[in-house]
Every structure is written in structure tokens, then in C-alpha cells.
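Lab notebook, design round three. We kept the backbone fixed and only want residue identities now. Task for the bench partner: fill in a sequence for the structure below.
Input C-alpha cells:
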């Protein structure tokens, strides 16, 4: 069950229009509401054993394997990676590769990127146009919000999330070898 190249990024295209065709312009308050909803949905996926394990996996029938790796832990903030693991012919592909910062004290979470290169690219600078940066942030967080809702609808939950035997921390999204056995 491997996605087409167009399907991988299809969920990133989020319209600013709501159900009745009313234009929803991204505003800071709306972004914060989305980030609060992302946090709420993540808390339905992140098991209590998160302090004891680095990686988790969730298997639900009719869905690809869902992987969650804790990349960084700090007193009030965690940084995690959430992705599907598509396996075929002894190789695996990670997609979408969502990097998420969770602010436990503020009860908010935000996506920082949907790719493995996220730490290698400069995404903000005082000279960059702030409106485009804000709109990109809005679209990425709305996409994560919708994907998390989809994951929960598929049946992924605290009950299905189990500690994984291996981590995917340093592995790129392109190809990840799978051990069979």
C-alpha cells in the first residue's frame, strides 16, 4: 500500500474555504485554536509510557503502520516525528514525515515540517515575507489537524500505540531498510 507521488502531498493542500464557501483567512487566534486542537488529538495518541520508550508503532486494519518517534525531550516541550511506514520488497518509505513540537505547559502543538530535511533548511528570516510564512504555517497546521483527525477516525489510539523495537531517528524519508524476522 504505497502512495502515489501526488497522494503524499495531497493532504498538504488545505483550502481556506469552510463548508459554506465563506473565506477563512488565517489569523493568529485561529492558528492558536488549531494548535490547541492538534495537542488534544495528539494526547489521544501518545501513550503514558512515552517517558520510558523512544519509539511507538500503531497497527490498525486497513491502515498503514503508524510510527511515532520522540526526537527530543525537555521539561515542558517534546519534539516528535509522526509518519506512516509503507513497506514493500524489503524497503520502507516514511510518508508523510511530520515533525511536531509539543508544548505541554501551553497545551499546544505545531508542525514544524513535513519532510526529513526540515532541520537543514532555513524557513524564517527577518527579511522573509511574514504573510507567506504565516500562511505556510497555517496550511501545515491545518493539514496536521486533518491528518490527526483521520488517524483517530481510522482507529489509531492510546490502545493501539505500542513501544517499537527500533527507532527511525536518523533515517531519511526516502528509504529505510526493514529487517524481516
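Proposed sequence:
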Amino acid at each position: 500500500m504505497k502512495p502515489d507521488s501526488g497522494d503524499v502531498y495531497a493532504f498538504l493542500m488545505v483550502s481556506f474555504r469552510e463548508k459554506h464557501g465563506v473565506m477563512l483567512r488565517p489569523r493568529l487566534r485561529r492558528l492558536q485554536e488549531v494548535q490547541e486542537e492538534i495537542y488534544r488529538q495528539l494526547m489521544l495518541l501518545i501513550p503514558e509510557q512515552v517517558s520510558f520508550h523512544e519509539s511507538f508503532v500503531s497497527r490498525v486494519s486497513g491502515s498503514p503502520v503508524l510510527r511515532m518517534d520522540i526526537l527530543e525531550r525537555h521539561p515542558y516541550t517534546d519534539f516528535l516525528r509522526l509518519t506512516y511506514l509503507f513497506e514493500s520488497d524489503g524497503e520502507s518509505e516514511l510518508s508523510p514525515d511530520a515533525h511536531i513540537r509539543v508544548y505541554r505547559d501551553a497545551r499546544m502543538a505545531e508542525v514544524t515540517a513535513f519532510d526529513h530535511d526540515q532541520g537543514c533548511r532555513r524557513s524564517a528570516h527577518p527579511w522573509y515575507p511574514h504573510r507567506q510564512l504565516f500562511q505556510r504555517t497555517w496550511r501545515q497546521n491545518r493539514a496536521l489537524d486533518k491528518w490527526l483527525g483521520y488517524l483517530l477516525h481510522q482507529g489509531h489510539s492510546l490502545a493501539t500505540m505500542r513501544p517499537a523495537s527500533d527507532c527511525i531517528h536518523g533515517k531519511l524519508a526516502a528509504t529505510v531498510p526493514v529487517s524481516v524476522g
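Keep this in mind before ordering anything: The chain has a mean pLDDT of 77.
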